[in-house]
């Protein structure tokens, strides 16, 4: 806006420059004539002064002088209003009882709140893009979906293979034997559990025989676990094997009958 005003001012000065130059020359000529008359020995008659005052400056005839004067007045008024508006905006021109902020049509820049919504939105978007948790979530989601698809495909293929194998494979004797063996083991297990339950109930009711308390094993005779102490477990195994060998050899020696010494031979006299 100020650039346009400056250009308009330059154009106006160019248009008014010839007029101002002509007026300046006319005033200079008039002042020279007055100086000649006021000099000593000069003619100071009123008629000469009137004639000098009535003289017009020499120059071209301007037919639009009245319009130019009117337009110049309007321009001066506009220029004055523009100057007042700028001074009010800067806080230079104020009226009585009015502050610089009140004189302005809009609030000054230092009283306006900055618009941080765009900056905040941009910052949030950047944080969301660089957030490692979001990247991990995307990766886990892709991984889980990929695993689910693989499981579905494997399940479908296994289901198809099992259907085809069952339809094509006849029941074999080995399968029936395995099923019979598993059935017998299950029945034996159920029978043992039933007997154990009955004995426990009988002991609690006082009708059944009490089990002898198991003899507590001496802690010093317990072996070492090979998982935590392999070297000690190996030594204990060697020692136990030696003890067993010694006991077996002792038992064999006891079982073998003792050989009696031969009787003395009697000679014939």
Automatic annotation (TrEMBL):
Where is composition skewed (Basic and acidic residues) in this entry? 182-197, 237-257
Stretches of Pro residues bias are at: 259-269
Q: Does the keyword Cell cycle apply?
A: no
Query: Residues annotated as region Disordered?
Result: 32-55, 141-269
Q: Which UniProt keywords apply?
A: Receptor
Per its UniProt record, what InterPro entries does this chain match?
A: LENG1-like
* Protein name, per record: Leukocyte receptor cluster member 1
Originating organism = Crotalus adamanteus (Eastern diamondback rattlesnake)
């Amino acid at each position: 806006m100020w650039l346009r005003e400056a250009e308009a001012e330059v154009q106006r000065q160019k248009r008014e420059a010839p007029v101002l130059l002509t007026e300046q020359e006319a005033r200079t000529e008039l002042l020279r004539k007055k100086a000649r008359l006021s000099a000593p020995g000069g003619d100071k008659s009123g008629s000469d002064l009137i004639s000098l005052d009535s003289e017009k400056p020499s120059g071209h005839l301007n037919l639009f002088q009245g319009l130019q004067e009117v337009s110049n007045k309007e321009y001066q008024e506009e220029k004055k209003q523009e100057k007042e508006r700028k001074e009010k905006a800067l806080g230079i021109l104020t009226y009585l009882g009015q502050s610089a902020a009140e004189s302005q049509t809009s609030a000054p820049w230092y009283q306006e709140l900055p618009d941080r919504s765009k900056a905040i939105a941009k910052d949030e978007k950047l944080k969301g893009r660089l957030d490692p948790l979001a990247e991990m979530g995307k990766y886990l989601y892709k991984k889980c979906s990929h695993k689910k698809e693989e499981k579905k495909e494997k399940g479908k293929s296994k289901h198809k293979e099992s259907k085809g194998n069952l339809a094509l494979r006849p029941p074999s004797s080995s399968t029936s034997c395995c099923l019979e063996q598993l059935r017998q083991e299950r029945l034996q297990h159920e029978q043992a559990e039933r007997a154990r339950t009955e004995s426990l109930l009988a002991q609690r009711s006082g009708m059944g025989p009490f089990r002898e308390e198991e003899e507590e094993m001496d802690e010093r005779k317990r072996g070492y676990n090979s998982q935590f102490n392999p070297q000690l477990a190996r030594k204990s195994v060697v020692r136990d094997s030696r003890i067993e060998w010694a006991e077996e050899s002792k038992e064999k020696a006891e079982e073998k009958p003792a050989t009696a010494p031969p009787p003395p031979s009697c000679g014939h006299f």
